[in-house]
Design brief:
By secondary structure, the protein is mostly helical. It has helices spanning about 5-25, 30-35, 45-55, 55-70, 75-90, 95-100, 105-110, 115-150, 155-205, 210-215, 235-250, 255-260, 265-295, 315-320, 325-360, 370-390, 400-425, 430-450, 455-475. Helix 1 (about 5-25) runs parallel beside helix 15 and helix 11 (about 235-250) crosses helix 17 (about 400-425). The protein is globular.
Length: about 475
């Protein structure tokens, strides 16, 4: 049960987030400040911001649940994440920086045309709205569990609105600078939370806990079984699927690409991206270890035996029962931090894509002032949509982290395929890209709904379909000149 000290920690954090975010951001004058931080942010801060952005409350509560109910093989995915980042830094970033782009989809517009640019940008917006709606809802799960145990019955929607309002405050006024610097603070907060949880769990663990975990097969990291098609955590599936998924998320999803545009130059952008891959491996290892120690702590009891409705509630249960006063509040703050970093990043990137890819192209005439004004308006619009969509996922029984990744699987393949088509095929035209893109998404929708293929393969299959079909369609186009 939370104490007055725990509530004090939470209130101080929420209030401090707004104050710190606005203080670090300074005064925003135009969209160069608001969306790109004048392209002058240090690479290490951008690297930590990337990690915090992709680490939502899904990671904090659902990854431990995966280790609790299974093994540590989820860590293999992160090996692929690092490989995918390296490929993005080599293949994509040089092209982005050569054109001094404002969004990732501007490259698509330059290569294929405005219709393809708008299509990919809108696809990004829909994907982010759904995927991050899941992430925002995930935050409400542990908060509701903790508050209910303390005698406070609060609805999911009320929790979602409260978190959103605090996040909106510093995002609306501070822009990308506030987002990045708050991400840095929030990353260290939720990592500190994981370390504190592990420390407490180790102190309470029996002397022979490791022997029991090994005997039960809980410490397995590498899986070289033959079930590569349907098992998401088989080594080949995890590494290849994780690498291609990371190429899509960090090379074509503007949620991450926007951060790379805030660095001073190409070299710092590449450094920020690759280092973030190393940090992600360490981070996932920490949260998986939390799940392993929770399994030791509760003796491997099922969620139902613990009085829970889903495995995602196990870590929140420990926050209530297993921590001293003040520490419970700090770990709940860590979950807030993970959620707010993702939501703030999404709001700013969605606002940027709306203004740069849509508003500037659809409005008859724009000025720097009107664009800046529209940027803040779109921040509020997307905020409202996030609150609405986050409340749509209350009845799902699928592990939240897998649901979030599955949503992106529908579109990531098509997005990555179009980018690769533009990079690798000089003959392909806009019509070829559009047809290949929509066909890839349609086929992936059928595959995901019909066949039990491991989710890491979804982006691989989708991008392969898009690239292959686009290349076949391009054969009918005239051969491009040497110029």
């Amino acid at each position: 049960m939370l104490t007055g000290l725990d509530y004090s920690v939470i209130v101080v954090y929420l209030f401090g987030s707004v104050v710190f975010g606005l203080w670090m951001a300074g005064k925003q004058r135009d969209n160069s400040d608001y969306f790109f931080g004048e392209r002058n942010l240090p690479w290490w801060a951008v690297s930590f911001s990337i990690v915090a952005t992709e680490t939502s409350s899904l990671t904090v509560i659902s990854v431990p649940a995966i280790a609790y109910g299974g093994t540590l093989t989820f860590l293999q995915i992160t090996f692929g994440y690092l490989l995918g980042r390296i490929l993005v830094s080599v293949l994509f970033l040089p092209r982005y920086f050569a054109g001094e782009l404002t969004t990732a989809y501007e490259f698509i517009g330059t290569r294929f045309g405005d219709r393809m640019r708008v299509t990919t940008s809108v696809t990004f917006m829909i994907t982010r709205l759904l995927a991050d709606g899941v992430r925002l809802f995930a935050t409400a799960i542990p908060v509701k569990v903790v508050l209910s145990a303390s005698g406070l019955e609060v609805a999911y929607w009320q929790i979602i609105v409260a978190i959103s309002l605090v996040t909106i405050a510093y995002t609306f006024f501070g822009g990308i600078k506030a987002v990045v610097w708050m991400d840095v603070v929030q990353m260290f907060l939720y990592l500190l939370g994981a370390v504190l949880a592990i420390t407490v769990l180790l102190q309470d663990a029996p002397v022979d806990w490791m022997t029991k975990a090994v005997s039960a097969g809980k410490t397995q990291i590498l899986d070289f079984s033959s079930d590569w098609l349907t098992s998401p955590y088989m080594f080949i599936t995890a590494v290849i699927g994780g690498a291609v998924l990371s190429m899509a998320s960090h090379g074509t999803d503007y949620l991450i690409v926007q951060r790379l545009f805030t660095t001073r130059n190409l070299k710092e952008s590449q450094l920020a991206l690759v280092v973030s891959g190393v940090v992600i491996i360490i981070q996932f290892a920490l949260f998986l270890f939390v799940g392993l120690m929770l399994w030791v702590h509760y003796g491997g009891a099922s969620p139902a035996d613990l009085g829970l409705t889903r495995a995602d509630e196990i870590y929140p249960k420990f926050l209530i029962e297993g921590l001293p006063s003040g520490v419970s509040g700090l770990l709940l703050v860590a979950i807030f931090a993970a959620a707010m970093s993702t939501v703030s990043s999404s709001l700013n990137s969605l606002s940027a894509a709306s203004v740069m890819d849509l508003y500037k192209r659809l409005a008859n005439k724009t000025t720097p002032e009107s664009e800046f004004r529209m940027a803040r308006i779109m921040t509020l619009v997307w905020s409202g949509l996030f609150i609405i969509f986050a409340n749509l996922f209350q009845d799902t029984k699928q592990p939240i982290v897998e649901l979030g990744l599955a949503i992106a699987s529908y579109t990531y393949g098509g997005l990555l395929g179009v980018f690769l088509l533009g990079l690798l095929n000089k003959r392909a035209k806009q019509t070829d890209a559009l047809i290949a893109f929509f066909v890839a998404i349609a086929i992936m929708a059928v595959i995901i709904a019909t066949y039990k293929i491991a989710w890491p393969w979804h982006t691989v299959i989708g991008s392969g379909i898009c690239l292959l079909l686009g290349s076949l369609l391009s054969v009918r186009q005239p051969k491009p000149s040497a110029q």
